[in-house]
Backbone:
């Protein structure tokens, strides 16, 4: 099985249970609402394992392509206990002082697990977020730990655990990709529900089911 075959490539591939959040994200990507403008960030929030980081890394390409460009240049920063202070924000900001190579003229900055930033670093980020030539894409598992001013500058996109039914189209694709016999929904739904919305766990379990079906048929 080819690695990454189930990796999402479009917003339609991303399982987001909150329909309003998904619709807002579509509007942002397709430039149907002014962005960056009064809001200059996208904050993906929710429980772990729901695909926030994967989506964050997709968004620059999707936005740049919708505006007539190709693959986007973006900066990715993992915020962690060892990399969460003022120096991180200062270095990240410095990289946006120069001309953007993207078709839309925008700089894309991804700050993964932004809640790990110190209070001072979050205040620096809030000040930096007054620019309108930078798109800030942030992720967090703990929304209350993110500075209110940072939140206010972002569209908040909820990515909590999706309902089991929302995963069924992908579930059937996974089984079909392995060449196994179709699995009825009533057999898939309990397995998906046990994964508590974790995309990683769901894909792993679906792969096991597909392989078991092949073994049974052998």
Residues:
């Amino acid at each position: 099985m080819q690695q990454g075959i189930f990796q999402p490539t479009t917003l339609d591939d991303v399982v987001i249970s909150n329909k309003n959040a998904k619709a807002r994200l579509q509007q942002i990507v397709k430039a149907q609402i002014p962005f960056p403008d009064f809001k200059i960030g996208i904050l993906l929030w929710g429980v772990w394992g729901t695909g926030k980081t994967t989506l964050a890394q997709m968004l620059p390409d999707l936005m740049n392509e919708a505006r007539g460009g190709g693959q986007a240049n973006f900066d990715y920063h993992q915020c962690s206990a060892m990399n969460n202070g003022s120096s991180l924000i200062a270095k990240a900001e410095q990289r946006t002082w120069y001309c953007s190579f993207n078709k839309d003229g925008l700089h894309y900055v991804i700050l993964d697990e932004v809640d790990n930033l110190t209070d001072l670093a979050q205040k620096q980020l809030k000040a930096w977020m007054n620019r309108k030539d930078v798109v800030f894409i942030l992720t967090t598992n703990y929304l209350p730990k993110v500075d209110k001013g940072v939140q206010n500058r972002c569209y908040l996109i909820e990515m909590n655990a999706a309902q089991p039914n929302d995963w069924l189209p992908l579930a059937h694709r996974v089984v079909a990709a392995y060449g196994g016999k179709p699995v009825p929904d009533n057999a898939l739904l309990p397995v998906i529900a046990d994964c508590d919305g974790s995309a990683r766990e769901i894909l792993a379990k679906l792969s096991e089911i597909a392989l078991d079906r092949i073994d049974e048929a052998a």
